[in-house]
Amino acid sequence: MTKRIAFLASDVKVAQTARESLVKRYGNAAPRDADVVVALGGDGFMLHTLHNMQHLDTPVYGMNRGTIGFLMNEFHEIDLLERLAAAEEEVINPLAMQAMDQSGKLREALAINEVSLLRAGPQAARLKISVDGRVRMAELVCDGALLSTPAGSTAYNYSAHGPILPIGADVLALTAIAAFRPRRWRGALLPKIAKVRFDVLDADKRPVMADADSVSFPDIDWVEIRSEPAIQHRILFDPGHGLEERLISEQFT
Fold this sequence. Notes:
Helices cover 17% and strands 40% of the residues.
Protein backbone atom coordinates (compact mmCIF):
# COMPACT_ATOMS: atom_id res chain seq x y z
CA MET A 1 0.00 0.00 0.00
CA THR A 2 1.41 3.38 -1.04
CA LYS A 3 1.92 5.74 1.87
CA ARG A 4 0.27 9.13 1.87
CA ILE A 5 3.13 11.56 2.47
CA ALA A 6 3.03 15.16 3.67
CA PHE A 7 6.16 17.06 2.66
CA LEU A 8 7.20 20.00 4.83
CA ALA A 9 10.31 22.12 4.27
CA SER A 10 12.22 24.88 5.98
CA ASP A 11 12.48 28.29 4.33
CA VAL A 12 15.99 27.75 2.94
CA LYS A 13 16.18 27.40 -0.83
CA VAL A 14 17.76 23.94 -0.90
CA ALA A 15 14.94 22.57 1.27
CA GLN A 16 12.22 24.23 -0.81
CA THR A 17 13.78 22.91 -4.03
CA ALA A 18 13.91 19.39 -2.58
CA ARG A 19 10.25 19.62 -1.57
CA GLU A 20 9.18 20.66 -5.06
CA SER A 21 10.98 17.68 -6.60
CA LEU A 22 9.58 15.21 -4.08
CA VAL A 23 6.01 16.49 -4.43
CA LYS A 24 6.22 16.05 -8.22
CA ARG A 25 7.43 12.47 -7.79
CA TYR A 26 5.27 11.27 -4.86
CA GLY A 27 2.37 13.70 -4.56
CA ASN A 28 1.54 15.54 -1.35
CA ALA A 29 -1.06 15.00 1.37
CA ALA A 30 -2.21 17.34 4.10
CA PRO A 31 -0.47 16.50 7.40
CA ARG A 32 -3.77 15.51 9.05
CA ASP A 33 -4.42 12.96 6.25
CA ALA A 34 -0.89 11.64 5.88
CA ASP A 35 0.54 8.29 6.95
CA VAL A 36 3.93 9.92 7.41
CA VAL A 37 5.35 13.45 7.44
CA VAL A 38 8.65 14.04 5.66
CA ALA A 39 10.52 17.06 7.06
CA LEU A 40 13.17 18.67 4.87
CA GLY A 41 15.67 20.92 6.63
CA GLY A 42 17.98 20.75 9.63
CA ASP A 43 17.55 19.79 13.26
CA GLY A 44 15.89 23.09 14.09
CA PHE A 45 13.20 22.50 11.48
CA MET A 46 12.77 18.92 12.70
CA LEU A 47 12.07 20.20 16.23
CA HIS A 48 9.65 22.75 14.80
CA THR A 49 7.85 20.00 12.86
CA LEU A 50 7.63 17.67 15.85
CA HIS A 51 6.15 20.44 18.00
CA ASN A 52 3.58 21.29 15.31
CA MET A 53 2.65 17.62 14.76
CA GLN A 54 2.30 16.66 18.42
CA HIS A 55 -1.51 16.70 18.20
CA LEU A 56 -1.32 14.00 15.50
CA ASP A 57 -0.16 10.41 15.90
CA THR A 58 1.86 10.65 12.70
CA PRO A 59 5.52 9.59 12.47
CA VAL A 60 8.01 12.10 11.10
CA TYR A 61 10.87 11.13 8.78
CA GLY A 62 13.49 13.84 8.37
CA MET A 63 15.87 14.30 5.43
CA ASN A 64 18.78 16.62 5.91
CA ARG A 65 18.70 19.82 3.93
CA GLY A 66 20.35 21.80 6.74
CA THR A 67 23.70 21.60 8.48
CA ILE A 68 24.37 18.96 11.17
CA GLY A 69 21.16 16.99 10.84
CA PHE A 70 21.54 14.80 13.91
CA LEU A 71 17.81 14.06 13.89
CA MET A 72 17.71 13.67 10.11
CA ASN A 73 18.36 10.96 7.54
CA GLU A 74 20.44 11.50 4.42
CA PHE A 75 18.66 13.08 1.50
CA HIS A 76 17.85 10.81 -1.44
CA GLU A 77 14.98 11.38 -3.82
CA ILE A 78 14.44 8.21 -5.82
CA ASP A 79 14.08 5.49 -3.15
CA LEU A 80 11.93 7.26 -0.55
CA LEU A 81 9.08 4.72 -0.48
CA GLU A 82 11.46 1.84 0.15
CA ARG A 83 13.22 3.76 2.90
CA LEU A 84 9.96 4.63 4.61
CA ALA A 85 8.87 0.98 4.50
CA ALA A 86 12.13 -0.12 6.14
CA ALA A 87 12.45 2.77 8.61
CA GLU A 88 12.81 2.14 12.35
CA GLU A 89 10.81 4.18 14.83
CA GLU A 90 12.04 5.93 17.97
CA VAL A 91 9.55 7.38 20.48
CA ILE A 92 10.60 10.28 22.68
CA ASN A 93 8.83 12.36 25.33
CA PRO A 94 9.31 16.12 25.69
CA LEU A 95 9.96 18.13 28.83
CA ALA A 96 7.13 20.27 30.20
CA MET A 97 8.26 23.62 31.61
CA GLN A 98 6.40 26.04 33.84
CA ALA A 99 8.09 29.35 34.59
CA MET A 100 6.98 32.32 36.66
CA ASP A 101 8.24 35.71 35.56
CA GLN A 102 8.75 38.74 37.76
CA SER A 103 5.40 40.21 36.76
CA GLY A 104 3.64 37.15 38.19
CA LYS A 105 2.73 35.65 34.80
CA LEU A 106 2.99 31.87 34.46
CA ARG A 107 4.71 30.75 31.27
CA GLU A 108 4.49 27.24 29.83
CA ALA A 109 6.32 25.45 27.03
CA LEU A 110 7.43 22.02 25.85
CA ALA A 111 10.99 21.08 24.95
CA ILE A 112 12.13 18.04 22.98
CA ASN A 113 15.83 18.83 23.48
CA GLU A 114 16.28 20.85 26.65
CA VAL A 115 15.09 23.58 28.97
CA SER A 116 17.85 26.05 29.78
CA LEU A 117 18.21 29.00 32.13
CA LEU A 118 20.64 31.68 31.00
CA ARG A 119 21.91 34.83 32.59
CA ALA A 120 20.47 37.92 30.90
CA GLY A 121 22.82 40.55 32.29
CA PRO A 122 26.52 41.21 32.90
CA GLN A 123 26.63 39.31 36.20
CA ALA A 124 26.52 35.57 36.73
CA ALA A 125 23.21 33.98 37.64
CA ARG A 126 22.54 32.59 41.12
CA LEU A 127 20.29 29.54 41.09
CA LYS A 128 18.86 27.27 43.78
CA ILE A 129 18.21 23.73 42.54
CA SER A 130 15.58 21.40 44.01
CA VAL A 131 14.71 17.88 42.92
CA ASP A 132 11.33 16.42 43.89
CA GLY A 133 10.85 19.14 46.47
CA ARG A 134 14.22 18.67 48.16
CA VAL A 135 16.90 21.36 47.86
CA ARG A 136 19.96 19.74 46.34
CA MET A 137 22.07 22.84 45.75
CA ALA A 138 21.41 26.00 47.75
CA GLU A 139 23.37 28.19 45.34
CA LEU A 140 24.88 27.62 41.93
CA VAL A 141 26.72 30.65 40.55
CA CYS A 142 26.96 30.22 36.80
CA ASP A 143 26.18 31.52 33.35
CA GLY A 144 23.22 29.14 33.36
CA ALA A 145 22.02 25.56 33.68
CA LEU A 146 19.95 23.18 31.60
CA LEU A 147 17.94 19.99 31.85
CA SER A 148 18.24 17.77 28.79
CA THR A 149 16.43 14.74 27.42
CA PRO A 150 18.43 11.84 25.94
CA ALA A 151 17.40 13.01 22.45
CA GLY A 152 18.78 16.49 23.20
CA SER A 153 21.90 15.36 25.02
CA THR A 154 24.13 15.83 21.96
CA ALA A 155 22.93 19.39 21.41
CA TYR A 156 23.43 22.31 23.84
CA ASN A 157 23.98 19.87 26.69
CA TYR A 158 27.02 18.32 24.98
CA SER A 159 28.44 21.74 24.13
CA ALA A 160 28.22 22.56 27.85
CA HIS A 161 30.24 19.38 28.60
CA GLY A 162 27.20 17.41 29.70
CA PRO A 163 26.96 13.63 29.16
CA ILE A 164 25.57 11.94 26.08
CA LEU A 165 22.62 9.75 27.11
CA PRO A 166 21.41 6.58 25.36
CA ILE A 167 17.99 7.19 23.88
CA GLY A 168 16.43 4.43 25.95
CA ALA A 169 17.85 5.67 29.23
CA ASP A 170 15.22 6.74 31.74
CA VAL A 171 17.37 9.64 32.92
CA LEU A 172 17.73 13.37 32.34
CA ALA A 173 20.96 15.35 32.31
CA LEU A 174 21.24 18.39 34.60
CA THR A 175 24.21 20.37 33.36
CA ALA A 176 25.77 23.63 34.53
CA ILE A 177 26.89 26.26 32.02
CA ALA A 178 30.22 27.84 33.00
CA ALA A 179 29.83 27.11 36.72
CA PHE A 180 31.75 29.48 39.01
CA ARG A 181 30.61 28.18 42.42
CA PRO A 182 30.85 25.28 43.03
CA ARG A 183 33.76 25.68 40.63
CA ARG A 184 33.68 23.34 37.64
CA TRP A 185 30.54 21.57 38.84
CA ARG A 186 29.28 19.73 35.75
CA GLY A 187 25.88 18.60 36.91
CA ALA A 188 24.03 15.37 37.67
CA LEU A 189 22.02 12.52 36.15
CA LEU A 190 18.43 12.38 37.38
CA PRO A 191 15.59 9.87 36.99
CA LYS A 192 13.27 10.65 34.09
CA ILE A 193 10.36 10.98 36.53
CA ALA A 194 12.15 13.64 38.61
CA LYS A 195 10.62 17.09 38.98
CA VAL A 196 13.32 19.76 38.87
CA ARG A 197 12.92 23.31 40.11
CA PHE A 198 15.25 26.26 39.65
CA ASP A 199 14.76 29.34 41.84
CA VAL A 200 16.48 32.49 40.64
CA LEU A 201 18.24 34.21 43.54
CA ASP A 202 18.70 37.97 43.45
CA ALA A 203 16.65 38.11 40.24
CA ASP A 204 16.40 41.92 40.12
CA LYS A 205 20.16 42.35 40.07
CA ARG A 206 20.99 39.16 38.17
CA PRO A 207 18.20 38.63 35.60
CA VAL A 208 17.70 35.19 34.06
CA MET A 209 15.82 34.04 30.96
CA ALA A 210 14.33 30.57 30.41
CA ASP A 211 14.42 28.84 27.04
CA ALA A 212 12.57 25.71 25.88
CA ASP A 213 13.71 24.62 22.41
CA SER A 214 14.27 28.28 21.42
CA VAL A 215 11.01 29.56 22.96
CA SER A 216 12.35 32.15 25.40
CA PHE A 217 10.89 33.99 28.37
CA PRO A 218 12.74 36.87 30.09
CA ASP A 219 12.98 37.92 33.75
CA ILE A 220 12.20 34.58 35.35
CA ASP A 221 11.73 34.02 39.10
CA TRP A 222 11.47 30.23 39.05
CA VAL A 223 11.19 27.30 36.66
CA GLU A 224 9.76 23.80 37.19
CA ILE A 225 10.50 21.02 34.69
CA ARG A 226 9.31 17.44 34.31
CA SER A 227 9.08 14.83 31.59
CA GLU A 228 5.68 14.64 29.87
CA PRO A 229 4.86 10.97 29.13
CA ALA A 230 1.43 11.85 27.73
CA ILE A 231 3.08 13.32 24.62
CA GLN A 232 4.95 10.94 22.35
CA HIS A 233 6.94 12.05 19.33
CA ARG A 234 7.46 9.32 16.71
CA ILE A 235 10.64 9.74 14.67
CA LEU A 236 11.67 7.46 11.80
CA PHE A 237 15.26 6.58 10.92
CA ASP A 238 16.93 4.46 8.28
CA PRO A 239 17.97 1.02 9.65
CA GLY A 240 21.27 1.21 11.51
CA HIS A 241 21.18 5.00 11.68
CA GLY A 242 18.71 5.61 14.50
CA LEU A 243 19.18 7.81 17.52
CA GLU A 244 20.74 4.98 19.55
CA GLU A 245 23.48 4.46 16.97
CA ARG A 246 24.02 8.19 16.51
CA LEU A 247 24.36 8.75 20.24
CA ILE A 248 27.01 6.04 20.44
CA SER A 249 28.86 7.19 17.32
CA GLU A 250 28.96 10.80 18.52
CA GLN A 251 31.10 9.74 21.48
CA PHE A 252 33.83 8.31 19.24
CA THR A 253 34.27 11.27 16.93
